[in-house]
Amino acid sequence: PLNTNASAARLLRLVRLMRVAKIVRKVPQLQMIIMGLVGGMKSIVYIMILLLLVFYLYAIAGFIFFKANDPWHYGNLGRAMVTLFRCSTMEDWTEIMYVNIFGCDVYPYIYVPANTTSLSGTLMDEHWFCTEPSGNGAISTIFHVSFIVLSALVMMSLFVGAVTMAMTESMDAMKEEGEALQRAKRLEKGKRMAEQMKAQQAAEAEAA
User: Which residues contact 166 (CB under 8 A, 6 or more apart)?
Assistant: First the structure.
């Protein structure tokens, strides 16, 4: 009985999905948007690969320049990648930039003096310690601002552009399909009218 109920539930979900598909087909605007998203997937994949390459290159640069001053954010390649993802979402990215502009001793943000213990009395992780402060205003500013421009602005524009182009192409295709259907209907109507005229002329000739 349990298997039967599970199968019935799956079938019901499938029926609901089919209803959603029918709704999409009935609304041309919604169909155009979905076709645009699907059509733009190839371009989106290439943009994602390019974005990943940008993240990787900046992560290596961040690790080289900031690992001593800012080990919590750039202590290794993995931390650097996570930090860059955070920056790309605009979450407190200026705080990270300021730590590396002024140094972790002048602008500690999350850092504490070395050998500080936590509230439980245990020694805190070494990534929290500011042991090698070395601010570098020019490099930090250029690094973080250029990354924000590339990741949050340029790449987002590429994503929007790829989807917009795909939607435009799908809209043109739907328009051409509609025009072809209208031409076919007119041609079929013309053929029927010609056949009716021939039949009428033949009937008139027989009557004469």
Answer: 35, 36, 37, 38, 39, 40, 43
